[in-house]
């Protein structure tokens, strides 16, 4: 089997493992949101919790699963490729020591400064002192999660670099399970029930790190505090990390601005945005994030060998495989958004109006899914080549554009305008990353790339259009939950089958390769 086929087979296999594990986590994430919607609906308690959790969650993207992991993995992987495992572990010790010191200090400062943070980020809450105070209290309780998830992300990066993707990918499921169980078990016993969600965040964060420890020990790692912050490899991580964190900081400012603007809109606006974003994140997490997780260590390994052609081919495979799943997912969210929201959330205190508003917001997140997903597999190529500055500049430009778009789109679409602006900016972000990629020495054939994506998009559009014509109504003969499920599952399943047929007709290469892989099992493709 050729090297190219070996790399492709490895990418498919690893992505499959991560996608499967991530799917479990995302399903539990939806269950978590269902539990939250059932017990609290869309109102003051959920707005307060979503806003409070957003603060440590935004910082998590910078110090944990975003910049830190992306900066650490290429340097760590380079040492492993060169066969120096002990030096790689020494680098991990230095980075983990820095995390405990720096992130620990940020957590302490954040707890002290929480009232100021909420005053700035959700100023609209000041009109309701009870809501403001609740948000402050919840934020302080959950700030410790930032340290837990930062440690967990570093462990995940180490395990991924050793080709171990399953346990790290399943670890977020433990986090979601912690929130679900805490809410179900503690709801009746707390004077303010929403605190059960915050307690669940801490329990889940501990579990997310703990479940990975056996695998970490198995690869031979033992943590020893190391304060050698002048180490050359650590400096290299920092050189990658700083531009990344600047770019991500711009993105976090954007989310804070959207939260601020939503806090002045209708009651429940923040919750509508949160629930629809979570639904959009389901296919994003299962497919795009999974591929991005696999792509970074693999791209870093190929780049360390100087194989630019192999790096380009890996990018093609990752992007096309990504679009094979993401484009039909985007059409499904756009066409059946309201039905999806109704099936998952419209129970208990979550009303018909809440479902309509969340469905509208989901519609405007659906086309942004394509941009978000494409960026996930494009940025790792830059990072593998040691360039985090250009993605940072493009990210900042996209974020500024996003914020500018908020104001006219809010006037047109109200709270849904926030989702529309974010989606447009995500598509532009990907377009710019792709446009500048040849500057990094990768000879990209735009004609070849877009022709394949066009085939996938056309297959997805035609399939979902035809399946939309399939209508069923079980409301007279089935219970409500079964009625909603069947009226959604039957046309969507039909659409997926039709989509696969169109992929064969249009000769979509990635679909053919994936089908052969599934049917032939472990045989080469």
End-to-end Cα distance: 9 Å
Structural class category = mainly alpha
- Oligomeric state as shown: single chain
What is the count of β-strands? 0
Instruction: Assign a percent range to the helix content.
Output: over 70%
What does this structure look like?
There is one protein chain. By secondary structure, this protein is mainly α. α1 runs parallel beside α7 and α11 (269-304) packs antiparallel against α12. It contains 18 helices and no strands. The protein has two domains: 3-444, no CATH class; 445-525, no CATH class. The chain has helices at 3-40, 44-63, 67-81, 85-121, 129-142, 145-161, 166-186, 195-210, 213-218, 232-262, 269-304, 308-345, 352-384, 389-413, 416-436, 446-468, 480-505, 509-520.
């Amino acid at each position: 089997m050729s090297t190219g086929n070996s790399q492709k087979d490895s990418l498919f296999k690893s992505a499959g493992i991560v996608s499967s594990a991530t799917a479990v986590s995302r399903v539990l994430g939806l269950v978590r949101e269902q539990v939250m919607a059932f017990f609290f609906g869309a109102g003051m308690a959920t707005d307060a919790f979503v806003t409070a959790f957003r603060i440590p969650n935004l910082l998590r993207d910078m110090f944990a699963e975003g910049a830190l992991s992306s900066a650490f993995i290429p340097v760590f992987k380079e040492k492993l490729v060169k066969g120096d495992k002990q030096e790689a572990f020494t680098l991990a010790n230095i980075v983990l020591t820095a995390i405990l010191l720096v992130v620990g200090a940020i957590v302490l400062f954040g707890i002290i400064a929480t009232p100021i943070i909420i005053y700035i980020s959700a100023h609209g809450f000041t009109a309701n002192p009870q809501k403001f105070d609740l948000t402050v209290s919840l934020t302080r309780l959950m700030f410790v999660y930032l340290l837990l998830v930062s440690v967990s992300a570093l462990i995940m990066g180490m395990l991924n670099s050793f080709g171990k993707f399953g346990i790290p990918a399943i670890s977020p499921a433990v986090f979601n399970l912690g929130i679900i169980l805490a809410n179900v078990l503690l709801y009746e016993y707390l004077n303010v029930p929403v605190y059960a969600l915050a307690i669940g965040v801490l329990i889940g964060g501990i579990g997310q790190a703990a479940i990975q420890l056996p695998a970490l020990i198995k690869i031979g790692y033992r943590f020893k505090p190391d304060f050698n912050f002048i180490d050359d490899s650590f400096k290299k991580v920092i050189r990658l990390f700083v531009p990344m964190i600047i770019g991500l900081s711009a993105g976090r400012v954007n989310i804070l601005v959207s939260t601020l603007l939503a806090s002045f809109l209708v009651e429940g606006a923040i919750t509508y945005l949160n629930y629809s974003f979570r639904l959009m994140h389901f296919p994003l997490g299962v497919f795009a994030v999974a591929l991005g997780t696999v792509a970074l260590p693999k791209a870093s390994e190929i780049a360390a060998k100087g194989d630019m052609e192999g790096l380009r081919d890996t990018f093609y495979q990752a992007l096309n495989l990504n679009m094979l799943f993401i484009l039909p997912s985007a059409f499904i969210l756009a066409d059946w958004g309201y039905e999806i929201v109704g099936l998952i959330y419209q129970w208990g205190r979550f009303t018909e109006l809440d479902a309509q508003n969340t469905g509208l917001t989901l519609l405007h997140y659906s086309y942004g899914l394509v941009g978000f997903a494409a960026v996930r597999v494009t940025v790792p190529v830059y990072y593998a080549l040691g360039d985090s500055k250009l993605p940072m500049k493009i990210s900042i430009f996209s974020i500024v554009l996003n914020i500018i778009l908020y104001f006219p789109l809010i006037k047109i679409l109200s709270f849904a305008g926030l989702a529309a602006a974010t989606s447009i900016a995500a598509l532009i972000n990907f377009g710019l990353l792709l446009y500048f990629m040849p500057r990094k020495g990768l000879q990209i054939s735009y004609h070849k790339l877009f022709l394949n994506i066009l085939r996938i998009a056309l297959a997805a559009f035609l399939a979902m259009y035809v399946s939309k014509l399939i209508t069923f109504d079980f409301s007279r003969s089935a219970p409500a939950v079964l009625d909603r499920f069947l009226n959604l599952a039957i046309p969507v399943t039909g659409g997926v089958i039709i989509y696969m047929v169109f992929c064969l007709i249009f000769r979509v290469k990635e679909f053919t390769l994936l089908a052969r892989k599934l049917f032939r099992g472990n045989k080469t493709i």
